[in-house]
Amino acid sequence: MFRAVFFSASVRACARSEQRDVVCSRRTLASAYQDQTHASLKDKIMSNPIPEPISSFVAATLNQHTPERRRSLASKLFNLIPTLLTFGLLAVVAFFGHHFGWKMPKASELQGAPVTAKKANWCSEHNVPEDECVECNPKLMPKPEKPRWCKEHGVFECPTHHPKLAQVVGEPKLPQYDTVEAINLFDRSENNSRCKKFLNRIQYESVEAFAKQNIDVDVATER
């Protein structure tokens, strides 16, 4: 009985020893295969060097933060100084031109046409006689300080509600019909209560200049 037990134990020990030997042999083979693979890869890399464009790109990438790179950046910034000075000079010229009212010459003057002499007593800004210019002489035709908006009729300075504003001969008379109903009779664009363009007056040099514009003027009469 003792012999049988001893024999079975020895058999198990031998089996374990054989398993360890097999594992060791497998590890040895795997290590040898790995070394052989690394060696073959190394030979391939050494036999096939990196192409020139890739190597130059790698070298440029590595040298990005070198002193030469910093010097090139400083030189670029230095080259921008003339451009900045040019734009600054143009800005100064534009400011003084706007402040002192510089104007570009007309195309006819650039083509050699004679420059017409300025008229005496003439408003060059509004192209009318200076003593008759209502923009330069507000007393000739005063503007309303606070234009009044009429919500009912949709106009400024409504002559219906303010008859004194009506430009008529004699005493102003109100229409005998409903003006609101007359306004709504036809479709028309509505006036903007915030628009102040009506304060700008259109002036003409003379009656002849006004007639050349072919503007029809008629007297409004009540029927």
Keywords:
6 helices; 223 residues; two-stranded antiparallel sheet; mainly alpha
Rounded mean pLDDT is: 73
Describe the oligomeric state of these chains in a short phrase. single chain
DSSP helix fraction: 40-55%
What characterizes the major β-sheet? Answer: 2 strands, antiparallel
Describe it:
The protein has 223 residues and is mainly α. Among the domains are: 2-47; 70-103. Helices cover 47% and strands 4% of the residues. It has six helices and four strands; from the N terminus they run ααααββββαα. The chain is elongated and about 115 Å long.
Layout of helices and strands, plus pairs?
Blueprint: H1 2-47, H2 52-62, H3 67-100, H4 107-110, E1 122-123, E2 128-129, E3 149-150, E4 155-156, H5 179-183, H6 207-211
Task: State the gist of this model.
The chain has 223 residues and is mainly alpha-helical.
